[in-house]
Amino acid sequence: MAAKRKPTRKKAPAKRPKLVPRKQPETLRLRGATPGLTVNDLPKSLAWYRDVLGFVVGDLWKDGGKLMGAELRTGTVTFILGQDDWQKGRDRKKGEGFRIYCTTAQDVDKLAAQIKAKGGVLTHEPQDEPWGVRDFGVTDPDGFKITIQARPKKRR
User: How far is CA 47 from the centre of its chain?
Assistant: First the structure.
């Protein structure tokens, strides 16, 4: 004789949040961005990003044994540096009207002090901004401006 099974209770279906239909056509939704910067002297820029800012060198791209590009990483951020081929002239300015804003959870005052200790020059010292971040600025060897910012930790 087979044992009787206890009746099982049906579970109430889990409530799901009501989905709001997306506008059509669907808008762009990014999950990251990787700036690619064309530089005058790739070895010099590579050294600056690695030794002054603290990026880690990833892939290096060579053509005929000559270094032509590099991937740099820090945290979840990647920058790509490429050697200028000079087809647009050697006197063209780079970095004009362009700034990269980078966000960190680290103490920007300590980061700024480390960068200065490694020979970096700040374009502005750490400061509190009216929009609620603390930031400082640097400029790379080709004039690309970078702002490093963090939301201040709440004090108790």
Answer: 18
pTM of the model: 0.78
Q: Measured on CA atoms in the order 33, 152, 96, 121, is the torsion positive or negative?
A: negative
Condensed to tens digits (0 to 9), the pLDDT of residues 91-118 reads: 777 878 889 999 999 999 999 999 999 9
What is the distance between the alpha carbons of residues 39 and 140, in angstroms, rounded to a whole number? Answer: 10
- pLDDT recorded at residue 154: 66
| DSSP category for residue 124 | E
Rounded CA separation 39/36 (Å): 10
Cα angle, residue 12 at apex, residues 10 and 16 outer, rounded to 5°:
145
Q: Which residues is 83 bridged to in the sheet?
A: 39
Mean pLDDT (whole number) for 8-33: 76
Give the whole-angstrom CA distance, residue 46 versus residue 140.
Answer: 10
Ordered DSSP codes for 4-32:
PPPPPPPPPPPP-PPPPPPPSSPPP--S-
